[in-house]
């Protein structure tokens, strides 16, 4: 007995954790900082942490009421109908629900390269195919309608990422509107805004609801997560906001109780903790600026909670910084073997990361792209 043919499937490569690295190197975990997975350096929302502790005694119950309450709270935050909010086990769970709702066997999706691997993984899980459009390094990973539409060939889902991972570039809503207008009536444009709180662009929810001068659309969906700005990566909580016409599909494609009791309680507390989000966003902004100014390598402008740096040999640099106690993301798995991605840490963490990377670059004497100064 064997599983189905999985030869075209790839495993997701997550950023390495402190315990994993410390065990491998025979070192004390306290020696390391992890800036590889775009996690919140301030931890979870304090209100959410309190809610998790208080919810411990109620985890014997299924999360029916809290699930409904959280969907209502998210809907209120975005001024949409609660039925448009598809809660999920992380943003990747929401991607799966969209795949189930739209893909027939053999349908294709169009994804950015480089980009989040799970877009394609989910399509393949649901017996779909994957095609790519390329975001060029030479163009600073700019996301334009021309870039996407030149590769479009009738795919059922087109994924956009704003801010884009791993570069941090964004796409304007007018450009999203053009893409949605120029793709077929059976194509859903999905805008992944996992890092949206960190960016100075409006959410594509405006396109669904016909706000800010845009006409309402039924061919755009938005992904959001509690993992980044809210600091809840460990409880796995995300959601999609879908067109009103899609509302009834959720009950037919979601897993029973799509988000756990703990996750829902944490989300309910976190969504109103504006102070924590504002502090997190301010930290990311300062960290990005510091890396752009001080890192001895080209660093692309970013509107996420991370920065992409061209270091010449990503694997060599990542391994060397890891030896010095700073864990960064080798972007070879993104198809960028010359780049590392550094998560925005606290002021102290960011300073340590920059100092460590610069020391490694000097020691390895790698050939790398010249630094670029904003003009």
From TrEMBL:
| Cofactor (UniProt) | pyridoxal 5'-phosphate
Q: Which residues carry this modification: N6-(pyridoxal phosphate)lysine?
A: 228
Give the Aminotransferase class I/classII large domain ranges: 31-356
Q: Which UniProt keywords apply?
A: Amino-acid biosynthesis, Aminotransferase, Histidine biosynthesis, Pyridoxal phosphate, Transferase
GO annotation, biological process: L-histidine biosynthetic process
Alphabetical list of PROSITE patterns matching this protein: AA_TRANSFER_CLASS_2 (PS00599)
Name the enzyme's class: transferase
Concerning Pfam families, the annotation shows: Aminotran_1_2
Keyword Lyase in annotation: no
Protein's recorded name: Histidinol-phosphate aminotransferase
- Kindly state which reaction or reactions the protein catalyses: L-histidinol phosphate + 2-oxoglutarate = 3-(imidazol-4-yl)-2-oxopropyl phosphate + L-glutamate
List GO molecular-function terms, semicolon-separated.
histidinol-phosphate transaminase activity; pyridoxal phosphate binding
Q: Which HAMAP family match?
A: HisC_aminotrans_2 (MF_01023)
Q: Where does this protein act, in terms of pathway?
A: Amino-acid biosynthesis; L-histidine biosynthesis; L-histidine from 5-phospho-alpha-D-ribose 1-diphosphate: step 7/9
The gene designation is hisC
Q: Which family does it belong to?
A: Belongs to the class-II pyridoxal-phosphate-dependent aminotransferase family. Histidinol-phosphate aminotransferase subfamily.
Q: What is its EC number?
A: 2.6.1.9
Tagged with keyword Amino-acid biosynthesis:
yes
């Amino acid at each position: 007995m064997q599983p189905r043919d999985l030869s075209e499937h790839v495993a997701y490569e997550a950023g390495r954790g402190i315990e994993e690295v410390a065990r491998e190197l025979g070192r004390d975990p306290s020696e390391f900082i992890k800036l590889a997975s775009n996690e919140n350096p301030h931890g979870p929302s304090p209100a959410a942490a309190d809610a998790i502790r208080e919810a411990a005694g109620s985890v014997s119950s299924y999360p029916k009421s809290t699930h409904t309450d959280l969907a209502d709270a998210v809907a209120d935050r975005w001024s949409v109908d609660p039925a448009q909010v598809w809660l999920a086990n992380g943003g990747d769970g929401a991607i799966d629900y969209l795949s189930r709702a739209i893909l027939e066997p053999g349908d294709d999706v169009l994804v950015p390269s480089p980009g989040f691997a799970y877009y394609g993984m989910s399509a393949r899980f649901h017996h779909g195919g994957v095609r790519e459009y390329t975001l060029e390094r030479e163009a600073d990973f700019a996301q334009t309608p021309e870039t996407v539409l030149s590769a479009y060939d009738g795919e059922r889902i087109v994924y956009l990422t704003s801010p884009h991972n791993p570069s941090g570039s964004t796409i304007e809503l007018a450009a999203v509107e053009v893409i949605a207008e120029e793709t077929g009536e059976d194509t859903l444009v999905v805008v992944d805004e996992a890092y949206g709180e960190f960016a100075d662009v409006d959410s594509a929810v405006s396109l669904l609801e016909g706000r800010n001068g845009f006409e309402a659309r039924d061919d755009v969906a938005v992904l959001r997560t509690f993992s980044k700005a809210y600091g809840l990566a460990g409880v796995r909580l995300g959601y999609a906001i879908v067109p009103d016409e899609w509302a009834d599909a959720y009950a037919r494609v979601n897993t029973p109780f799509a988000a756990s009791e703990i996750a829902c309680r944490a989300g309910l507390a976190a969504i109103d903790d504006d102070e924590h989000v504002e502090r997190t966003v301010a930290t990311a902004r300062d960290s990005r600026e510091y890396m752009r100014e001080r890192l001895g390598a080209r660093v692309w402008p970013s509107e996420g909670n991370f920065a992409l740096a061209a270091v010449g040999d990503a694997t060599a640099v990542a391994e060397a910084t890891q030896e010095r106690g700073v864990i960064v993301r080798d972007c070879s798995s993104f198809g960028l073997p010359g780049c590392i991605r550094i998560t925005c840490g606290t002021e102290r963490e960011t300073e340590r990361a920059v100092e460590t990377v610069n020391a490694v670059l000097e020691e390895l004497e790698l050939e790398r792209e010249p630094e670029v100064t904003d003009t």
